[in-house]
Design brief:
By secondary structure, the protein is an alpha/beta fold. It contains 18 helices and 13 strands. The strands form 3 sheets. It has an 8-stranded parallel β-barrel, surrounded by 6 helices. Bound molecules: beta-D-fucopyranose. Beta-D-fucopyranose (FCB) binds next to loops.
Length: about 500
């Protein structure tokens, strides 16, 4: 017998989205992880202490290339303040802390001996987190390539990178895998390559005319693809090693984290719509396509031709399915326009190959950023539809405050809380729509050295007084808001836990 009409009506009503302002964390799936993150180079400081050697980012900043000419030699000094920080995380109610291991701290020469002091530091940090019930989510490589490998064989441009990276990753699994259950092989390979090898704005600053300024060497036409290829193969190599030797006993998960800009057409012309589609393939598909289908996207193959490295059958098999989850760092929607200029077969870079004008670096540097929470929904739909709905971790999402220098200690950051609320609402709706999202991490847990802006932009839930000797931490209102939400409060009205916890 068919159910009565009113029962059907009730069922329909129950399926409608409820008032999202009243969402609580219990509306997210069981086991959903809420956290916040940083990365080693950006937060640790202690750059020349206890055996750490320089990374390409130390060299770059020491040569005065960062936005505000600053270095990360001390930064937030988490190396010396990790206990205070873990206490803050605990009081905030974080389920997890996402951080990275500094390759040049653990294996200072890039290959060979483990630095016992580096090992001790990460063991201490991990143990401290676990003692406080906070899961360590660890990125193995977050842009800070040992300078020695850059000097020796040009870093990512050499296939030798794959072996050195794999040995380093194995040292991480062996040393920390008994306690670390969430591994990320590489953070944002899709921007490291464009920034470092096309426009040359990030280390190792390789580029060629007319695609970059201050190029000291490089080839923007070919090198981004080569560097990305080696990063992909290094990722696949670490995943297969982890699966073959460690996963069964350590029972962890391993994935890769991509920058997830979402490209939208700049106008309603069909040319711009096609340009946005191409850009999403170049930006996300560059890595997702090989990982799901075993090859680069067809549009990249046809546009970049022989400049896009071939994948052997063996490599392709190793890449396909080489992830337990995909991490996404989502900040921006980027407006893409079709490139109307005459196509120059001699002078092509990544953007020319995509036949699109969509490079947001200038806009980012000028502070012309478009925050669009709906873009996160579109990005998640894209992964669901095009790449078989992989398990996703939102590894970064956050709000930059960039008020003028000299910086002062500021607690009031309601815009940050609203930003996070807007994105969490979209995330909730995407999950209801079937996206398999398993976790969300705010960037950043506290203020750090920012890759694009030095100390000029601050993303922290907690602030750091970078002018104070002890790098005093202080708890911003957004941290109180997040804490209230994590402890069961409603999304928009999560009552602040007051001053239940104090700055370290
Ligand atoms: C991302 C980086 C991260 C942080 C944010 C703002 O591209 O992964 O380390 O600097 O940008």
């Amino acid at each position: 017998m068919a159910p009565p009409l009113f029962v059907l009506l009730l069922l329909c009503l129950a399926a409608l989205p409820r008032d999202t302002a009243a969402l609580t964390r219990r509306d997210f799936p069981d086991g959903f992880i809420f956290g916040a993150g940083t990365s080693a180079f950006q937060v640790e400081g202690a750059a020349a202490e206890d055996g750490r050697k320089p990374s390409i980012w130390d060299t770059f900043t020491h040569q005065g290339y960062s936005y505000d000419k600053s270095t990360a030699d001390i930064s937030a000094n988490q190396y010396h303040h990790y206990k205070d920080d873990v206490k803050l995380m605990y009081e905030m109610g974080l389920d997890a802390y996402r951080f990275s291991i500094a390759w040049p701290r653990l294996i200072p020469d890039g290959r060979g001996e483990i630095n016992p002091k580096g090992l001790e530091y990460y063991n201490n940090l991990i143990d401290e987190l676990i003692r406080h019930g906070i899961q360590p989510h660890v990125t193995i490589y977050h842009l800070d390539l040992p300078q020695s490998l850059q000097d020796e064989y040009n870093g990512l441009l050499s296939p030798r990178f794959i072996d050195d990276y794999t040995a380093y990753a194995e040292a991480c699994f062996k040393s920390f895998g008994d306690r670390v259950k969430h591994w990320v092989t590489v953070n944002e390979p899709n921007i490291e390559t464009i920034g470092g090898f096309d426009g040359g704005v990030l280390p190792p600053q390789r580029c060629s005319h007319p695609f970059g300024v201050n190029c000291t060497g490089g080839n923007s036409t070919t090198e981004p693809y080569i560097a990305a290829h080696h990063l992909l193969l290094a990722h696949a190599s670490a995943v297969s090693l982890y699966r073959a030797k460690y996963q069964a006993t350590q029972r962890g998960q391993i994935g890769i984290t991509l920058l997830g800009w979402w490209h939208e057409p700049a106008t309603n012309s069909s040319q711009d719509a096609a340009a946005a589609t191409r850009m999403n393939d170049f930006h996300i598909g560059w890595f997702m396509h090989p990982l799901v289908y075993g090859d680069y996207p067809a549009v990249m193959r046809s546009r970049a031709g022989a400049r896009l490295p071939d994948l052997t059958v063996e490599q392709s098999n190793k890449l396909r399915g080489a992830f337990d989850f995909i991490g996404l760092n989502h900040y921006l929607v980027v407006r893409a326009r079709a490139d109307g200029s005459t196509f120059n077969l001699e002078q092509r870079d990544y953007y020319a190959d995509a036949y699109a004008i969509a490079n947001p670096f200038d806009d980012i540097q000028e502070g012309r950023l478009e925050y669009a929470p709906w873009a996160l929904g579109k990005l998640l739909d894209h992964l669901k539809i095009k790449y078989g709905n992989p398990p996703v971790m939102i590894h970064e999402n956050g709000y930059a405050d960039a008020s003028e220098l000299p910086r002062k200690v500021e607690y009031e950051d309601d815009s940050r809380s609203e930003f996070l609320q807007d994105y969490l609402e979209v995330l909730y709706l995407s999950i209801r729509n079937g996206s398999d999202v398993r976790g969300y991490f705010v960037w950043s847990f506290l203020d750090v050295f920012e890759f694009l802006f030095g100390y000029r932009s601050r993303y922290g839930l907690c602030g750091v007084d970078m002018n104070s000797e002890g790098r005093t931490r202080y708890v911003r209102n957004s941290a109180h808001w997040y804490s209230g939400f994590l402890k069961g409060g409603e999304l928009r009205s999560a009552s602040s836990p007051g001053k239940a916890y104090a700055a370290a």
